[in-house]
From TrEMBL:
Belongs to the peptidase S11 family. Gene3D superfamilies: DD-peptidase/beta-lactamase superfamily, Sporulation related repeat. The keyword Nucleotide-binding does not apply. This is D-alanyl-D-alanine carboxypeptidase. PROSITE patterns: SPOR. It comes from the Bacteria. It comes from Kumtagia ephedrae.
Length: 443
């Protein structure tokens, strides 16, 4: 069996015994250095089964730095798959995008590149200007796209992540965890196998430049096929790696490294130790595909600011307009409203009039489908889910309920009315068949 080894990463012309001694010393020194840095966090997840093989501060809040671009790419891939954009679609660089600090592609304000070039720029150079240009194209504005990013994070189960920008430049209100980044790494591969190979590109040609990938483990540690590096002074050196060895697959995350070299060495150590322990059997998808794009996606993020006529028995369009306040797209009002709010029949008992914020949760088994730091987004997710699965949720009552975690108030989106655990999980299974992520919990 092929193995990804830190020894292969560093080629020495000395005896095997000396190599072993050096390697042991290296492991000890790296572990000590990592543990002494308050920014350090790491996790290794079996990408076939979801089992955690290694964890150190995996649930602790950390700054993502340029790992943020993984979510920017997720939403870009989602738009490509949905046919909203093409690889050849021009991505225009605004004054704000062109003014982003390095690293950057260097496109002048008013200029443009193709979507595919922007993707390569994010993956190889980690270009901040290209990240903002994509965000403005897909979300109408940086703030609008950041809301989409956070909503998508919730839909994927990344409950400890909040995004404020598309590139990862310093923002104290933008945070994540090593575990959430592992979830995103797995989701990128599971949901977009047709686009995932972009992450393994070692360089690409841009004009007269040959731009190399910042991920130096590609081609150095056997089996590594992506994903992304990141660094700011506050975050330290971050890295998410996907590794394949035959039927075994893991996604590993190291955050808070003291240098790029020490981070890479520690990642190589984790890969060598834990990849052989991964299962060779797949257990099915690990990250549920959220229906639409951030609760009917791009449509709701780009609703025009002006009010639209609200058909009878449909939700108040102003609630969704509030979510999309920052978006500047000028799409035909009627077409967007029809896409986002086609009224199904019959409506479930979880009607818009019954949807409310609960101060005390109902007893018994409930299903949770999402959570969001925005009360308005949570209400929109509740309504969208109720309309998408009227038969499954016909005898339930939908509600949102706030909870406080790590200084942030979130709003859970739940449906109550299940007599038993089996009934709740059965309904959840039916929702998953409609690409609605969920899980059952007893209050």
């Amino acid at each position: 069996m092929r193995q990804a080894t830190a020894v292969r990463f560093f080629q020495f012309s000395i005896s095997p015994k000396a190599i072993a001694a050096c390697f042991l010393a290296l492991i000890i020194s790296v572990g000590a250095a990592s543990a002494s840095d308050s920014r350090y966090a790491a996790v290794v997840v079996d990408a076939n089964t979801g089992k955690t093989l290694f964890s150190a501060n995996a649930g602790a809040r950390r700054y993502p730095a340029s790992l943020t671009k993984m979510m920017t790419l997720y939403l870009t891939f989602e738009a490509l798959k949905a046919g909203k954009i093409k690889k050849t679609t021009p991505v225009r660089f605004s004054n704000e995008a062109a003014a982003q600090p390095p690293t950057k592609l260097g496109v002048r304000a008013g200029g443009s590149v193709s979507v595919e070039t922007a993707i390569y720029a994010l993956i190889t150079r980690s270009a901040n200007d290209a990240a903002l240009a994509l965000a403005e194209m897909l979300g109408g504005s940086e703030a609008g796209f950041a809301k989409m990013m956070t909503a998508k994070a919730r839909a994927l189960g990344m409950d400890s992540t909040v995004f404020r920008n598309p590139h990862g430049l310093p923002n104290t209100a933008q945070f994540t965890t090593a575990r959430d980044m592992a979830t995103l790494g797995i989701a990128l591969r599971e949901h977009f196998p047709q686009y995932y190979p972009y992450f393994s590109v070692r360089s690409f040609q841009y004009g007269k430049q040959r731009i190399a990938n910042h991920n130096r483990l590609l081609g150095k540690v056997e089996g590594v096929d992506g994903i992304k590096t990141g660094y700011t002074r506050a975050s330290g050196f971050n890295l998410v790696s996907s590794v394949t060895d035959g039927d075994r697959r893991v996604v590993a995350v190291v955050m808070g490294g003291q240098s790029g070299a020490s981070r890479d060495r520690h990642m190589a150590e984790l890969i060598e130790k834990y990849l052989p322990r991964a299962s060779g059997r797949r257990g099915g998808p690990l990250v549920a595909k959220a229906a639409g794009s951030s609760f009917t996606a791009i449509a709701e993020a780009i609703l025009p600011k002006r009010k639209a006529p609200t058909p009878q028995a449909r939700p108040d369009i102003d609630a969704v307009a509030e979510i999309a306040e920052a978006a500047d797209e000028t799409i035909e009002t009627t077409a967007v409203v029809e896409q986002a709010y086609a009224a199904p029949a019959p409506r479930p008992r979880a009607d818009i009039d019954a949807m409310q914020t609960a101060s005390v949760e109902p007893e018994g088994w409930v299903i949770q489908v999402a959570s969001s730091p925005s009360k308005v987004e949570a209400a929109a997710m509740l309504e969208t889910t109720a309309r998408k699965a009227p038969s499954v949720l016909a005898s339930t009552s939908g509600y949102t309920v706030p909870f406080y975690k790590d200084g942030v108030t979130y709003h859970r989106v739940r449906f109550a009315g299940f007599d038993t655990k089996a009934a709740a999980w059965k309904a959840c299974g039916q929702l998953k068949k409609q690409n609605i992520g969920c899980y059952a919990v007893q209050n």
